[in-house]
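Backbone-to-sequence.
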């Protein structure tokens, strides 16, 4: 859980800090440093609002638990979080290159109009979006115990690393192409999303919401048990210890959705998820290539007409 929390908070906090940093740097560059306080005010209000959302979310989750519907809420959170994480990765991959230009253009409109309220609201919404996403993802990786994720070392470490990276980035001492950076971190986020999807399917099968054609495709308990309890049971039943500890299995399950005895549906969902992601990536690359080649073809046709 802690590693998941670190990756999520690092990614979300960095995105928010980069956008706020772009805004404040632009305001200083154009000679309107006095507006930066309003940007930070909006960001601070968004952080406070995100904490409020976390408390409200926890309250709602507790209510579902009291009604005996906790498991269904967990499954819903996992599925939606997997979709949101995937969408977030694709969104950043597409907009990271033009992020600076887009943000500065919006700020230029606010400065020209002297729209202080617009600056506060814009920075508020930017940071709040990241905060709400973080709360939702924390609910997914902790099965509803958002406070545990917020108080752990993973979340705090992710924020600290994001702050350092953004600081050195804007100081000019760190040269990182944003597109490449988000592509690398996005790969880990996709793995987490796939794990959440598989865990949701496993929970649906546990409560009988969906069945299984083949409950156990293979059994890797002898190599890597899914949990320390599975480790102990294997030693008791076979008289020998598995190759790896159950603690390793717990870590991999929390991070990537590892299962030592997956059902056929879990295996197909895991593989199918990556196939869909690959097809989406290939499709977007094809669309971008077509957009780039179209002006080139038009230019050649125009030259041919001029020659004739």
């Amino acid at each position: 859980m802690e590693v998941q929390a670190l990756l999520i908070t690092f990614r979300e906090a960095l995105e928010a800090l980069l956008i706020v940093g772009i805004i404040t740097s632009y305001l200083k560059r154009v000679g309107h440093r006095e507006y930066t306080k309003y940007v930070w005010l909006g960001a601070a209000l968004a952080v406070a609002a995100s904490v409020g959302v976390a408390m409200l979310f926890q309250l709602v989750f507790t209510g579902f638990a009291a009604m005996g519907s906790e498991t269904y809420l967990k499954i819903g959170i996992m599925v939606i979080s997997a979709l949101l994480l995937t969408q977030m990765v694709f969104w950043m991959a597409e907009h990271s290159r033009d992020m600076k230009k887009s943000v500065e253009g919006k700020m230029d409109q606010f400065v020209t109009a002297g729209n202080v309220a617009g600056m506060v609201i814009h920075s508020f919404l930017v940071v709040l979006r990241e905060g709400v996403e973080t709360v939702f993802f924390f609910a997914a990786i902790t099965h509803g115990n958002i406070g545990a994720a917020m108080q752990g070392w993973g979340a705090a470490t992710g924020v600290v690393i994001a702050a350092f990276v953004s600081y050195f980035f804007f100081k000019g001492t760190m040269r990182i192409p944003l597109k490449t950076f988000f592509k690398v971190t996005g790969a880990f986020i996709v793995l987490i999303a796939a794990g959440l999807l598989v865990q949701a399917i496993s929970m649906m099968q546990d409560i009988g919401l969906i069945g299984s054609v083949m409950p156990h495709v293979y059994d890797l308990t002898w190599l890597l048990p899914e949990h320390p309890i599975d480790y102990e049971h294997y030693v008791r039943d076979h008289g020998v210890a598995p190759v790896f500890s159950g603690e390793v299995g717990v870590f991999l399950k929390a991070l990537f959705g590892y299962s030592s005895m997956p059902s056929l549906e879990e295996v197909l969902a895991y593989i199918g998820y990556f196939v869909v992601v690959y097809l989406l990536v290939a499709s977007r690359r094809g669309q971008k290539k077509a957009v780039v080649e179209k002006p080139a073809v038009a230019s050649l046709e125009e030259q041919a007409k001029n020659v004739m």
